[in-house]
Specification:
Elements lengths: L1 H17 L3 H4 L2 H23 L10 E4 L3 H5 L4 H16 L10 E4 L2 E4 L9 H6 L4 H7 L13
Antiparallel strand pairs: 1-3, 2-3
Helix pairs in contact: 3-5
Length: about 150
């Protein structure tokens, strides 16, 4: 057990020594280009929800898991790859391999809509997928979850 603590402590110490602000790691235009491309992709995917979602909704959350290098190099290949699959799905109206539970999945990129039952925002589906934090907050006595306490 002490070995695990030592490893954790070393990792934390390493993170502190190399920790830099996001603005110091990337050019603002690199991050902005990626975010804009991701937003545009999400908007292009909205017609696929039309036949799947019972209500018209224009609000969505698009999330991509990318490396520092992809952002630094303004590499939007992950979005372009997903866009090829999106274009095919729009043309064929076949979403069987990408649609599930108010979401579209393209490997490292997902587009999420709010769910009606249970009512959950797309953001909550990403940040609290198992609903643990929300249930902890809403269960008396109202305490702060361990995940959110300052260490």
């Amino acid at each position: 057990m002490s070995q695990g603590y030592g490893t954790c402590h070393k990792l934390r110490k390493r993170e502190e020594s190399t920790d830099t602000l996001l603005r110091d790691r990337f050019l603002v235009k690199s991050v902005a280009k990626f975010c804009k491309s991701l937003k545009d992709f999400g908007e292009r995917s909205m017609p696929l929800f039309k036949g799947q979602v019972r209500y018209e909704m224009k609000q969505f959350v698009a999330v991509a898991f990318v490396s520092n290098e992809e952002i630094k190099n303004e590499d939007i290949g992950i979005i372009q790859e997903a866009d090829c699959r999106l274009t095919k799905a729009l043309a064929t109206k076949d979403v069987s391999d990408i649609y599930e539970n108010y979401s579209l999945s393209f490997n490292r990129l997902v587009v999420l809509m709010n769910t009606p039952e249970p009512k959950r925002h797309g953001e909550a589906r990403i940040l609290d997928p198992s609903d643990v934090i929300r249930r902890t907050i809403l269960t008396p006595p109202f305490t702060v979850p361990v995940l959110m306490k300052k260490i």
